[in-house]
Amino acid sequence: MLKRMVLVRMESNLMVLAPPVGRDRIISDFPKWYTPEACLQLKDHFHRQVRAACQEQRTGTVGLKVSKVVVLGDLYVGKTSLINRFCKDVFDRDYKATIGVDFEIERFQIAGVPYSLQIWDTAGQEKFKCIASAYYRGAQVIITAFDLADIQTLGHTRQWLADAQRENESGSSFVFLVGTKKDLLSGPACERTEMDAVHLANEMQAEYWSVSAKTGENVKAFFTRVAALAFEQSVLQELEKGSCHAQIRAGASISIRREESSVASQEGASGSSPGCC
Ligand SMILES: Nc1nc2c(ncn2[C@@H]2O[C@H](COP(=O)(O)OP(=O)(O)OP(=O)(O)O)[C@@H](O)[C@H]2O)c(=O)[nH]1
Question: With CB atoms 3.0 to 4.6 Å apart as the test, which of 45, 74, 111, 115 could cross-link to 153 if both were Cys?
Answer without folding.
Answer: 74
